[in-house]
Each structure stands twice: as C-alpha cells, then as structure tokens.
Design a protein that fits this description.
single chain; 9 strands; globular; 10 helices; alpha/beta; six-stranded parallel beta sheet; binds pantoate; about 280 residues
C-alpha cells in the first residue's frame, strides 16, 4: 500500500484520529531523514510490532547550535520516501520548520542531569531541542511505541527519563547500533567523510572493541579502560578526541568502577566531522 505523506500537524492528527477509531496500535520512528540501514532497522521493527507506523523526517532546527551543521545536514526526501515505503511504514510526516514552530513558540522541555554530560556538555541546548520535538511527535502521533537507535545512547537515556518523569503514555524501544562491514557505526553524517577520513573513522569502533574486551576480561577500573581507548584513537593522525567517557547507563553520571550497567561513549572529530559511538556493558 502507498505510504501517506503528511506535511502538517493538522494532517497527521486527522490520520491518527482515523487509526485510533479503528483501534490500531501505532509505532513512531522519529528521524531527521537521509535514512540508512540503521533507520531501516528501526522502521522494520516498528512495522513488525505495530498495526500502523508513522516515520517523521524532519531536520529539527532547535536541536542544532549556532555553529553546527543545520544548513549542510544531508537531505534526500525522495530517497527516504522510497525506503520508508519499501519497508512498509504507513505514514511519513515531513513538515517545514514553520509548521512545527510558530513565530512566538515559547515552550521547551529540559531534562536535568542525564542530559548534562557527554554531548549535552559539548552541545548546549541540544537535548532541550530533541526533547521538545520528540514530545511534539509523541503528542501528534499518540503512538504506543517509539523507536530510537542506541547509537545516540545519551539521547535514548534522556528520552527514557523524560517519558518516565512526565508519565508519557508511550513505550520507548532502544534498538542496536547498525555498523558498516568495517565496524563504523552507520550515521547520516558519515557522508561528510572523504576517502581518507572514512578509513580513519574505523578507529572509533576499533578502540571501543578493545575497551569492551578489557571490561569483559575483568578490568573494572574506568580510568584504565578510558586511557586505552584514548591511546588507540590518539594514534590516528586524522582523529581528534572530543570525549571518552564511562558513565552509569541510567543517570549518565561518570563512574570510577565498572560495577553496574555502564555506557562507554566517545565523540571524535575525524577532520571536521564529529562522530559518536558507544557500547553498553551490562553486569
Ligand atoms: O536522532 C535523531 O535523528 C533526532 O535527534 C530525532 C530523535 C529525530 C529528533 O530530532
């Protein structure tokens, strides 16, 4: 069946009203478009677990800082639409910023603590922008379930906390990181990398793999693991570390000893492109 394209919140609401009337369960996959297999895996899972699936394709301006890549963020709606249709989703929501934010828009959602370290510390206001748009999408879609990739691990933790704190009536499903054959985590921003940078970018997953093996072999001192990861990345001339951190997976507070579920997260510039990657260690 052909996927429905909704351009405005009003159109979405009409479709959702109809779906709700018929008693359908609804899955939401929020994206910024330029879809790759990582997004594909979220859509596939949503299609399996829900009667109807809405995918949003919206480059959300309020989650970008003034010197970030809002203007250059890759966009290809026709290709996105083809992929979404092929995977069997039912509706694509593709609004303009002016459809989402009135000129006097004045409400934002902010999640303290969990959004303050890692990317939150480097990208001030980023998670307020994410939480605000995600809440709008939750409200519009009235979804039963929403699907997020673990690649943006802190985002997943922040959204989970927000949903818990605000008693939002939605289940958050975290889905595994999808990687290229050489280990690089799939990301729309990989497209910024030139061939040399693309090769260099494999250092992120290599360093993380070593870190994970160390923990699995019994190393519980976070500083020792972080030092090894830092050492491996520093050997790559095109790489510049933004952060290497090990935190509690729930609170995103740094830990000294790896004695609980932890997130090991890194952000690394390869040339001018900032890439993130991570693994979660469950005790
Ligand atoms: O992960 C993303 O692509 C974005 O942060 C999201 C969740 C679609 C909100 O704009």
């Amino acid at each position: 069946m052909e996927v429905i394209v909704a351009r405005t919140p009003k159109e979405v609401k009409e479709i959702i009203r109809d779906w709700k009337k018929q008693g359908y369960s609804i899955g939401l996959v929020p994206t910024m478009g330029y879809l790759h297999e990582g997004h594909g895996s979220l859509i596939e899972r949503a299609v399996k677990e829900n009667d109807k699936v809405m995918v949003s394709v919206f480059v959300n301006p309020i989650q970008f800082g003034p010197n970030e890549d809002l203007e250059t963020y890759p966009r290809d709606f026709d290709a996105d639409l083809q992929m979404i249709e092929k995977l069997g989703a039912d509706m694509v929501f593709h609004p303009e910023p002016s459809d989402m934010y009135a000129p006097d828009f004045s409400t934002t959602i902010s999640v303290a603590g969990v959004s303050e370290n890692l990317c939150g510390a480097r990208r001030p206001g980023h998670f307020n922008g994410v939480c605000t748009v995600v809440t709008k999408l939750f409200n519009l879609s009235e979804a039963d379930r929403a699907y997020f990739g673990q690649k943006d691990a802190q985002q997943l933790a922040v959204v989970r906390r927000m949903v818990r704190d605000l008693n939002a009536n939605i289940e958050i499903i975290g889905c595994p990181i999808i990687r290229e054959d050489d280990g690089l985590a799939k990301s729309s921003r990989n497209t910024y990398l030139n061939p040399d940078e693309r090769k260099a970018a494999t250092v992120l997953s290599k360093a993380l793999r070593t870190g994970k093996q160390m923990i699995e072999s019994g190393e519980k001192n976070a500083e020792v693991v972080k030092s090894k990861i830092t050492e491996i990345i520093s050997k790559e001339p095109l790489a510049k570390i933004d952060y290497v951190e090990i935190t509690d997976w729930n609170s995103i507070e740094p830990v000294d000893i790896i004695d609980r579920s932890t997130l090991c997260a890194i952000a690394v510039y390869i040339g001018n492109t900032r890439l993130i990657d991570n693994f979660i260690y469950e005790v």
